[in-house]
From TrEMBL:
This is Putative binding protein YtlA. It is found in: Periplasm. One of its GO terms (cellular component) is periplasmic space. Pfam families: NMT1_2 (PF13379). Its main location: periplasm. Keywords: Signal. Gene3D superfamilies: Periplasmic binding protein-like II (3.40.190.10). Belongs to the bacterial solute-binding protein SsuA/TauA family. The keyword Signal applies. Residues 1-24 form the signal peptide.
């Protein structure tokens, strides 16, 4: 009887392990390229950490490809199935008349994520104060830079004549260049903006996201051929993202920070929480994956104001809302 019990127990364990292995093998591997590592993408990390992708049968292999050009090249060369990147890159690619262009199918962030940071306190700040000053901006042609120029022009400031606009510093070196340089103003993402405030290196005085309005800032996209051949996968992916968006919307900044902290181990948890709170307050995290036509038109207006909009950027061609609508209506 003892041996029978041992044999039965072992058999049950083997069956359970086999079943678990079988379930794991059913997961479909998705190579996902993100343009940078940013807490701005909190819902994506939540979807991974909370198991929302796995619940959809997807095994996400996340790679950070550091830069719009590199990320788009990775996507177009089949180094990634899906890319999280600024939607403006799909417009640039489409303008080159490729056979298999990238299509936006799920929005993740819906505002710009940068803040205006000054070296010195500005208790009575006005955008007019930037005139005649040195402003360390973002890379030319990227959304942060275009939004920066759009906001300056909105306040009747010519970014190329009314101030000294510096755009020759790589994205990763902008914070250190600001600290060591003579610029009074800089355009920074979180958590760097909050870190600078804590360390007394700068002061957050305005939000470019609030000033520029809703825009499809960071979007999941895939090649036209991939969308046609993998409709079920795209729908599963979009469903997981939507679930994460709703989770982020309904939970506090501290809870979100704890879930995604492993992606930002060098960032103090308190700073992470403060940064997420800032983004939640200005509604930077999209609450659903639907990329609407009015926000697409705002994107085009921002690009046009910066002189970066190609002749054509048709919403009906470069945006696919079918998957977002389907999962939102379930």
């Amino acid at each position: 009887m003892k041996y029978f019990f041992t044999f039965t127990t072992s058999l049950v364990i083997v069956i359970m392990l086999t079943a678990c292995q079988a379930n794991y093998q059913k997961l479909t591997k998705i190579n996902l390229a993100e343009v940078t590592r940013s807490l701005f993408y909190a819902p994506q990390y939540v979807a991974i950490e909370k198991g929302f992708f796995k619940d959809e049968g997807l095994d996400i292999q996340l790679q950070t490809t550091w830069g719009g050009d590199k990320t788009m090249t990775t996507l177009l060369s089949d180094g990634a199935d899906i890319a999280l990147i600024g939607s403006e890159t799909s417009i640039y690619v489409y303008a080159q008349n490729p056979k298999d262009y990238a299509i936006n199918f799920a929005q993740l962030t819906q505002t710009d994520g940068t803040f205006l940071v000054a070296k010195n306190p500005k208790p009575n700040f006005s955008w007019e104060h930037l005139k005649g000053e040195s402003f360390l901006g973002q890379r030319k042609g990227g959304m942060p830079q275009m939004v920066g120029e759009f906001v300056l022009k909105k306040h009747q400031i010519d970014p190329h004549n009314d101030l000294t606009l510096l755009q020759n510093v790589d994205f990763g070196n902008i914070p250190s260049a600001f600290v060591s340089g003579d610029s009074e103003y800089v355009q920074l993402f979180e958590p760097t903006a909050s870190v600078f405030e804590r360390e007394g290196k700068g002061h957050v005085i305005a939000s470019f996201g609030e000033e520029s309005g809703k825009v499809p800032y960071t979007v999941f996209m895939a090649k036209q051929s991939y969308l046609k051949e993998n409709k079920d996968i795209i729908k599963q992916f979009t469903r997981a993202i939507y679930r994460a968006q709703k989770w982020v919307e309904s939970h506090g900044a501290s809870e979100i920070a704890n879930v995604i902290h492993s992606y930002f181990e060098d960032v103090d948890l308190e700073i992470l929480t403060t940064s997420i709170e800032r983004y939640k307050n200005q509604q930077s995290f999209a609450t659903n994956p639907l990329l609407t036509e009015d926000t697409w038109e705002n994107l085009k207006a921002i690009m046009d104001a910066a002189g970066e909009l190609p002749n054509e950027a048709p919403y009906e061609i470069l945006v696919n809302t079918d998957f977002a609508k389907e999962v939102m209506n379930e």
